[in-house]
Model the fold of this input.
Amino acid sequence: ETGVTQSPTHLIKTRGQQVTLRCSSQSGHNTVSWYQQALGQGPQFIFQYYREEENGRGNFPPRFSGLQFPNYSSELNVNALELDDSALYLCASSLGAPPNSPLHFGNGTRLTVT
Amino acid sequence: GENVEQHPSTLSVQEGDSAVIKCTYSDSASNYFPWYKQELGKRPQLIIDIRSNVGEKKDQRIAVTLNKTAKHFSLHITETQPEDSAVYFCAAVPGGKLIFGQGTELSVKP
Done:
């Protein structure tokens, strides 16, 4: 069974640039959720995708957008990067949304915005 | 909006002692309460979870209790070991998304 994989592991961008983060869900999982974890904080929910449709969104501006593909992999796109976007971005997959299935997290992408 | 408060933020215990971490939540619609362990530089890993129709659940040295009336739940680790040292996060789930607490950094001293 392949777990959740994310790429890249680390990324450095300049303020104002755009970034795309990628996530492959665990085998058999059809739901992907994205979280932002600032240093020393708990993860914060960005949005969730189920069967290629956004299925819930947290308190993040529209410059945070996403996609889910037919194979259930997903992308997180962030436009007009700001310094406060520096964080660990975690992808998690599940078979349906919790509590139907627990979330399994990837190792994350560490984004630094300078 | 939904909110989860977690205490304490740091906890230091001697090996073999017990550790207790407490969380409160605001959204009464929450019906699922997972706990995650995150070691430095690693992914959060699910260690135990409890659903709203259960008051207590135990898995070896780890137990979780839930009081839905008071909207609080707790993680209990007995016979702590140095490898239990990590950051622990509680979460509540209203409507399919996890709302995490701020985390507790547990340090187990040998």
